[in-house]
Amino acid sequence: MIELTIPGKLFVAGEYAVTRSNGKAICVAVETGLKVRISERQGHSRLRTNVPLADHDFLINAFEIEAGGWAFALTALQKTLKASGRQGFPELGIEIDSPLGYGEDKTGYGSSAAVVVAVVQAVNSFLGLGLDQKACFEIAGRAHREVQGSGSMGDVASILTGGLMAYQSPDADFQNWKIDSLLLPAWETYIVKTGKSVKTGDKLKIALPEGFFERSDQLVEELARAIQTADFEAFKLALIENQALLIDSLPEAYLTDKLSLALETLNKETDLVAKVSGSGFGENLILFSKNGRDLTKLAEKLAEQGIILEKIKIASKTNEGQ
């Protein structure tokens, strides 16, 4: 049996613009405690999880993809086995222990992408398939997009790679994608939770003008330069402009009352900068602190409005144990 610890993700910038071919974004992988365990089984293979989803039994050498909660995992499994070029696999038990919620209780850390990456990496490692990171990204990215029906695969890339990264999405032929690691300066990172779950796939289908995409890509490049030079002031200006671009371009419901309150509260502090992370319409902000000061009073002020501010730890990579 092996056990892997899989991170989640938060988008820093570019989450809508990156949904088109060769769009750009910045993402960060964060520790969440999601674990996947895999071992051989007798009889049938079995998928099991701690979220409210019934166990799924199947034969690993002859199974169909079924609609429903296990579609992400089954699609990832099928594509991983096929990519190996092998046949005659042993039956497997795959157990996913996720703190990321399910359905209306999702936390916004990229739970479906985390499950896809978990299955690809666990099966690749346990069966010794020898698939490299490029192959794993393509398998996981295609599987996630096929089931969700939309998306940039930036969440898959972030969870698979770990750390902070600049990402360019693939083109229509799944070519010309880029994953460039960025070293975060000595700034502390927080998440601000509004407690409202969002179905991301629906939001990513919103039509946006070409000018939006061009400006978003420019801002992502500015943000990457500011990170590389540890220029917090330039980083804050570009991140706030990216946020304003999203607010101006998306439906009014993008910025909920809680998100608006948190942004106003945090961004007036000169050494802090916050931005909606992901599709908006609820869920989370990501917050960067230049000086690492105590944010207890700000956290208490937000908590009075039902908003949670807590520190997060950037995940470097998937952690494997026996």
Summarize the structure.
The model has no long low-confidence stretch (mean pLDDT 92). This protein is 35% helix and 24% strand.
Features:
single chain, 322 residues, alpha+beta, Ribosomal Protein S5, domain 2, Alpha-Beta Plaits, 2 domains, eight-stranded mixed sheet, four-stranded antiparallel sheet, 12 strands, 35% helix, 24% strand, globular, nucleotide-binding, transferase, phosphomevalonate kinase, Phosphomevalonate_kinase
Report on this structure.
With 322 residues, the protein is α+β, with helices and mostly antiparallel strands. It folds into two domains: 2-181, Ribosomal Protein S5, domain 2, CATH 3.30.230; 184-311, Alpha-Beta Plaits (2-Layer Sandwich). It has nine helices and twelve strands. The strands form two sheets. Strands 1, 2, 3, 4, 5, 6, 7 and 12 form an eight-stranded mixed β-sheet that branches. α6 packs antiparallel against α7. The longest helix is centred in the C-terminal third of the chain and has 19 residues, at 210-228. It is globular, with a radius of gyration of 20 Å. The termini are close together.
Task: List the SSEs and their pairings.
Elements: E1 2-13, E2 24-40, E3 45-49, E4 56-58, H1 71-84, E5 92-97, H2 111-126, H3 133-148, H4 154-161, E6 164-168, E7 178-182, E8 188-193, H5 200-203, H6 210-228, H7 232-249, H8 257-267, E9 272-277, E10 284-289, H9 296-303, E11 308-311, E12 319-321
Parallel strand pairs: 3-5
Antiparallel strand pairs: 1-2, 1-12, 2-5, 2-6, 3-4, 6-7, 8-10, 8-11, 9-10
Helix pairs in contact: 1-2, 1-3, 2-3, 2-4, 3-4, 6-7
Pathway: Isoprenoid biosynthesis; isopentenyl diphosphate biosynthesis via mevalonate pathway; isopentenyl diphosphate from (R)-mevalonate: step 2/3
GO molecular function, one term: phosphomevalonate kinase activity
Protein name: phosphomevalonate kinase
